[in-house]
Design goal:
Elements lengths: L19 H15 L11 H11 L4 H14 L3 H6 L2 H8 L6 H16 L8 H5 L6 H12 L8 H10 L9 H15 L4 H14 L18 H5 L15 E11 L5 E6 L9 E2 L2 E2 L11 E2 L4 E4 L3 E11 L13 E7 L1 H5 L5 H13 L1
Parallel strand pairs: 1-7
Antiparallel strand pairs: 1-4, 2-3, 2-8, 5-7, 6-7
Helix pairs in contact: 1-10, 1-11, 2-3, 2-8, 8-11, 9-10, 9-11
């Protein structure tokens, strides 16, 4: 391992099942020709690389591109991000989902300003100690921005390497995960580790697809055990997904006599933390003590672990006095006109509810 240190899972190469130098050379050659032109590629700025890596988690590159450009225009430096208002940060993230990523980016930026003079640390361990930066992101930043010979293992890399090994066990944990780490660490332990890591990620994103890997186009085919033994799409075994939990809620579209709407901000931690919305309550709870009218059919909204069904109701209060009681997870309440709500960071679910509200005029 190089100057950046490395993940604690890094292991030696004694039992390596493939020719790492030859595969590394093939990956680098392929990446030099076939990599997609993306705005964060070739960025010399470690901050830009960090932002892109966080945005790319669970999100496709094509979706990330416009967000990345806008983000870098709004928060061009670590210091600018650290000094920004959380509402502006969440607004810039609006629509990307997994909002804890945006909040953690800002928390980490503030830590970097406070503890590292505003400069992103170079060492893997220092990076991994920052909020929201796990082993993958630390490895990606350390290798791409600083040339540290450390692996960066995301879901794509796990699948590619799992296929190279024809892994028959879960590669996200236990012995399967360790076997992937051995190979990824060996591949990164040479020249241009950032390019090698990105080649593996790119291969997973563009060639070694989950269901239909394009093996004839793959630079790693000569070393791929899954291809050699049969249908490579069968490797590594997929984990069964847990069914999302069904949750029902009522969304309150409450107006005052001036047409202002009651909106609430969620606490910073937790699902959709820091975002504004029409308050949601359990179906049997009361938010304001007036009669309600239905506001159209229920809306469905899917989160990773929750299948939410929201029934919107309308209510008009005589005086804008806010909710009758404390309603979790909300920490702030405002009466705002429609235009002012457009200036707030809101979730995709709230956008749907606003559309419903607009339809009622
Ligand atoms: S040969 Fe096929 S299965 Fe193996 S790494 Fe390449 S694309 Fe994936």
């Amino acid at each position: 391992m190089s100057d950046g240190g490395g993940p604690s899972t890094a292991v030696g190469r004694a039992a390596l099942p493939l020719d790492a130098p030859a595969l590394r050379a093939a990956l680098r050659g392929w990446y030099a020709v076939h990599r997609r032109a993306l705005p964060w590629r070739d960025a010399a700025d470690p901050y830009a690389i960090w932002v892109s890596e966080v945005m790319l988690q669970q999100t496709r590159a094509a979706t990330v591109e416009p967000y990345f450009r806008r983000w870098m225009a709004s928060f061009p430096t670590v210091a600018a991000l650290a000094a920004s208002h959380e509402d502006d940060v969440l607004s810039a993230w609006q629509g990307l989902g997994y909002y804890s990523r945006a909040r953690n980016l800002q928390r980490a930026a503030r830590t970097i300003v406070a503890d590292h003079g505003g400069v992103l640390p170079r060492a893997y361990d220092d990076l991994a100690a920052l909020p929201g930066i796990g082993p993958y992101t630390a490895g990606a930043i350390a290798s791409i921005a600083f040339g540290a010979r450390v692996p960066a293992i995301d879901g794509n890399v796990r699948r590619v390497v799992g296929r190279l090994l024809a892994a028959r066990t879960d590669v996200a944990r236990g012995a399967g995960a360790r076997a992937v780490e051995v190979v990824a660490a060996a591949l990164a332990d040479g020249d241009a580790p950032g390019d090698v890591n990105q080649a593996l990620m790119e291969l997973g994103a563009t060639v070694c697809a989950p269901r239909r890997p394009a093996c004839p186009r793959c630079p790693a085919a000569p070393w791929c055990a899954a291809r050699a033994v049969g249908d490579p799409a069968d490797f590594p075994p997929r984990r069964p997904r847990a069914r999302p939990r069904a949750v029902a809620a009522v969304a309150w579209l409450v107006t005052d006599p001036d047409g202002r709407m009651l909106v609430a901000r969620r606490a910073s931690d937790g699902l959709l933390g820091g975002l504004w919305e029409f308050p949601l309550t359990p179906p049997d709870a009361t938010l304001v003590d007036v009669d309600t009218l239905p506001a159209g059919p229920a809306l469905s909204h899917a989160f990773t672990h929750i299948a939410l069904t929201v029934t919107p109701v309308r209510a008009q209060v005589a005086v804008a006095v806010g909710p009758m009681r404390t309603v979790e997870p909300y920490v702030e309440w405002r009466w705002l006109n429609r235009k002012m709500i457009d200036g707030l960071p809101v979730s995709t679910l709230m956008r749907k509810l606003l559309g419903r509200f607009d339809a009622f005029g």
